[in-house]
Amino acid sequence: MNFKKLLLSLFALALLCAVATAQASTLQPTNPQPAPPAEAGKGKKKSGKKSSKKKDDQAVNEAAQPPAGATGTVAAATPDATAATLETGKSKKSKGAAKAPKAGGGSAVAEVRAVLDAQTIAWNAGKLEEFMQGYWNSPELTFVSGGRKLMGYDATLERYRRTYQSDGKEMGKLTFADLEILPIGKDAAFVRGQFQLVMSDARELGGRYTLIVRRFADGWKIVHDHTSSN
After folding, report:
1. What are residue 134's phi and psi, to 5 degrees?
2. Bigger pLDDT: 81 or 121?
3. pLDDT in tens, 163-209
4. This prediction's pTM
5. How many CB atoms lie under 10 A from the CB of residue 123?
6. 66 Cβ contact partners less than 8 Å away, ≥ 6 residues apart
7. CATH architecture of 111-229
8. Is residue 212 within 8 Å of 223, Cβ to Cβ?
């Protein structure tokens, strides 16, 4: 009887052990599960972003490099650099405009006009000798008027005295009009215009004239005068 109970107890114990082992195998699997595919995808995506960024940086660096065979330094195209380049261009352009040459003969025209203006002032002040300072003081000066040709400074001065300062004569008020000054090279010019004299009795005399003037050490002088009265 006791032996039979012992066998039953051993059988029951063995059955309990088998059941416990089976439950343990079900609750704790021995084989590890593989990583989810989503994680691998994320890794590939992140790696792709890094690779794309690296390619973009490489493309930017290549674009900043000068072309093969080029010399000099190529600056990065930043807003500050662009602004500096534009400002430099404006500065160079302004300097170039400031140094633009004047029209040829501009100075000669102004200087010859100044001589004629000084003659007008001297004449209207009754100062014939000052008026004559606009002429070349030389025996080679030529003066043509009324069909007569005079040679020399002294002969020209004497004619003016006889015509405008002798008894019963007056100089009147002189004005020049329709004036043209045409430079001939650097040291000569051709002048033509119209003169008018208004006398004290309101009489008006006038005519046209042509001049050749030359530049000397002491300024521009009339070397030839051809005057025709109306």
Report:
1. -80, -10
2. 121
3. 999 999 999 999 999 999 999 999 999 999 999 999 999 999 999 99
4. 0.55
5. 23
6. 72, 73, 74
7. Roll (3.10)
8. yes
